[in-house]
Amino acid sequence: IKRHTKTKCESSKQGIKRRLGSRQRR
């Protein structure tokens, strides 16, 4: 369960960072 939580948090954080980078790159 702990691993699953960390993965979900990391995935959400990575998604936001990737989205921001894409917007800034444009």
UniProtKB/TrEMBL annotation:
Residues 15-26 have a biased composition (Basic residues). Residues 1-26 are annotated as: Disordered. It comes from the Bacteria. This is Uncharacterized protein. The lineage of its organism: Bacteria, Bacillati, Bacillota, Bacilli, Lactobacillales.
